[in-house]
Amino acid sequence: MIIVMKKEANAADIAMVVARVEKLGYQAHLSTGEERTIIGLIGGQRPVDKTQFEVLEPVEKAMPVMHPYKLASRDMHPNGTMVALNGFKLGGEKIGIIAGPCAVESRSQFLETAYAVKEAGATALRGGIFKPRSSPYSFQGLGEEGLELISEAYELTGLPVVTEALSPEQVPLVARHAAMIQVGARNMQNFALLQAVGQSGQPVLLKRGMMATIEEWLMAAEYILANGNPHVVLCERGIRTFERATRNSTDISSIPVIKQASHLPIILDPSHSTGRHNYVAAVARAGIAAGADGLIIEVHPRPEEALSDGAQSLKPEKFARLVEETRAIAAAIGRSL
Ligand code: PEP
Ligand code: MN
Asked: Residue of the nearest CA to atom 10 in ligand 1?
C-alpha cells in the first residue's frame, strides 16, 4: 500500500503515520517530494485496510498496490492450476464440456439426456436438483430424491455430475453424490455457503454473480481457497446490463482478464449468458476462442416440455453440432477436445 500525505502535513504528522505503519508490522519507506511525502508499506504479513489510514487527518489517500485476493492470484501458480473431475482435468490442454438439463425432472429425462450428451462428446454431466428459482411458484427441483438419480447417472454413463447446493446444510449431501458442487450466481456472495463448500474439499464450480465485478468474484473464490479447498473452477454466466435482447450480457472479456489475474480454470456458460437456444452456439464458440477451459451447456431432449430454462436448452442434435464446432475452434488455438 502507498499512503499519500497531504501537502500541509508536517514532520510530526509523518512520524505519527510511520508509527502506525510500524505498529501493523510493516516497515515504512519514505519518499519525500517537493510538495508532499509518500509512505510505502514494505513487508508485513496481514492485508491492511486502507481506511485505517484514510481516516487520519494528514493523509490525502491510501492506495493498495496488491490484489485483495492472494490465494486466487496467478502469482501463487504462474502456470495455472487444473481441477480433476474423475480422469478429466479442467484447466489443462483439453477443453471440458459439461452438459445436461437445467433441472433433473425425472429418471427417464435425466438418463436420456445423459446418454445423449455422452454420445455427443460431453466430459461431464449437469443437472440441478435444488433449483434457485426467482419465483417460489416455479419448479424447485426434485430435491433429495434427485440425489440417487445423480449417483445412478454417474454409474451408468461414467460421466461425473455437477449439481448445485443452495445452502451450507446441503453441501455434505450433495458432496456424497456429485463430483462437483455448483455455487450459483445468486449465491456467489453467500459466505456461509462458500465456507461450507471450502471445507468439503470437493471440486467447486463457482458461477459469477449477475451483478458481481471480477474482483468480487475472485474474492468469493478466495473464501473457498482460504477454507482449504484448492479445487475451484470459475464460470462466467453473463452479467446484468441494460440490454434486454439477451437474458444476460456475456462478458467474454472476463475470460482473458481472469486468465491474467488468476491461476484458476474458467469455463463459460453460454446458456444462461444468452437465455436463447439460437444464440448459444455462437457465444460458446467465442468463449473457446477467448481462452475458456470449457463450457457448461443446458441440453434437454424436449425443450418445449422443460420445467426450467427450456428457451435456452439445446436439443441433443444441436448440442452434438456445437461440440464439433468447438473441436474446430479448439484446434485453431492449439487445444483439443
Ligand atoms: C443453473 O445453472 O441452472 C443456474 C441457475 O445458473 P445461474 O446460477 O448461473 O443462474
Ligand atoms: Mn438453468
From this structure: 185
Report the SS3 class of residue 4: strand
What is the distance between the alpha carbons of residues 286 and 333, in angstroms, rounded to a whole number?
12
Residue type, 325: E
305: Cα separation from own chain's centroid: 29
Using CA atoms, how far apart are residues 313 and 333, in angstroms rounded to an integer?
27
Q: How many domains does the chain have?
A: 2
Containing structural domain, residue 45? 2-63
Same-domain pairing of 45 and 121: no
Protein residue closest via CA to atom 9 of ligand 1: 185
DSSP 1: -
Ligand 1 probe mutation, 113, 182, 239, most atoms within 8 A of CB: 182
Considering the domain architecture, whether residues 247 and 277 belong to the same structural domain is answered as yes
Task: Match 502456470 to its residue by C-alpha cell.
Answer: 79
Residue type, 271: S
Tens of pLDDT, residues 67-124: 889 899 999 999 999 999 998 999 999 999 999 999 999 999 999 999 999 999 999 9
Percentage with pLDDT > 90 across the chain? 93
If asked whether residues 216 and 159 sit together in one domain, one would say yes
CA of 237 to the centre of ligand 2 (A): 10
Cβ–ligand 1 distance for 237 under 6 Å, the answer: yes
User: Quick check: is 156 in a domain?
Assistant: yes
Domain end, chosen from 15, 35, 63, is at 63
| 163 and 289 co-located in one domain | yes
- Sequence-distant (6+) residues with CB within 8 A of 244 are none
pTM for the complete prediction? Answer: 0.91
**Of the candidates 93, 101, 85, 95, the residue with the CA atom closest to the CA atom of residue 121:** 95
Domain-located, residue 76: no
Q: 43: helix, coil or strand?
A: coil
